[in-house]
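Supplementary Note 3. Input sequence used for the single-chain structure prediction.
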Amino acid sequence: NRVLFPYMLEAATAYAEGIPGPVIDKAAVKFGMPMGPIELIDTVGLDVAAGVGRELAPFLGLQIPAALQTVESDKRGKKDGQGIYTWENGKPKKPDVASDYQAPADLEDRLILPLLNEAVACLHEGVVAD
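The predicted structure, written as discrete structure tokens, is reproduced below.
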């Protein structure tokens, strides 16, 4: 959780700034993640992600973005069929993105570097051996 959460939080922040969820997910999958962080947040549940955020954000010195601050009880993600994405038959229906939309050039770095930074912090603190 400690290493994954900064990645998910940065994705939620990018989403709150107006970067479309499918664009964020595509950047992460391009990097090599099995699924994008927006889909992951919806899969684990917005309520669960918000709960983890409330616990870890102060420890990590991070802010919780608007997308995770208020979670409607019937829009928690995959388990309700509605979250950031709408879900049908266990699959997210990702909205179309305008064909002329230009993703920020640094989006991949922006998503992955918080994860890497936290992994290095764990190494330096002796939380992990290597």
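The first strand starts at residue 86 and ends at 88. Strands lie at 86-88, 91-93.
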